[in-house]
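Give me structure tokens for this 175-residue protein.
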Amino acid sequence: MAFRNIDRDNTGMISAEEFRKFIDSLQLSNISEKEKLLLISNYTENSQDKGGVISIAAFKNKFWEAYTCFGRENNATAKMQAKGQVDELQSAKRQVLTYMFMTLRERTDNNRERAWALLDQRKIGYFEIADLRSSLVQLSVYLSKSELSFIFNFMDKDKNNIVNCFEFFDFWEIG
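Here you go.
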């Protein structure tokens, strides 16, 4: 787990210094030094006890905030391209995709982390088509093989027969 790798002193809390070392270790070329400092100062100011440390729950929120803001090059471009793909779908396929998506949003109170946990049942960081089918059946969503395959392939952008959390979150964002 990322939190444990960053929490070098094993206190269950991450200090601002541990957080900075983590950011530096990522060697992200698209984050300027100014953006790093802003992220760290924001992290320190918004930590739970204002003492410059952060719990695992707060860390998860900060991680996704940082990923959304800085984690992907051309993030806006990728969203626009994905949105265009949805617009180009045939009506029947769009309905199936929308039905599955809206059911996930409804059953998870519009929470993408809950939706991800539902789909990543084996807690391995990705799901396969069989996992998707099993999750949808639990939600009482029954699809034909071709519909299921279509939805899975729509999310599996790199076509490696698995959907990782980044592919799923991209899917969630365009919905």
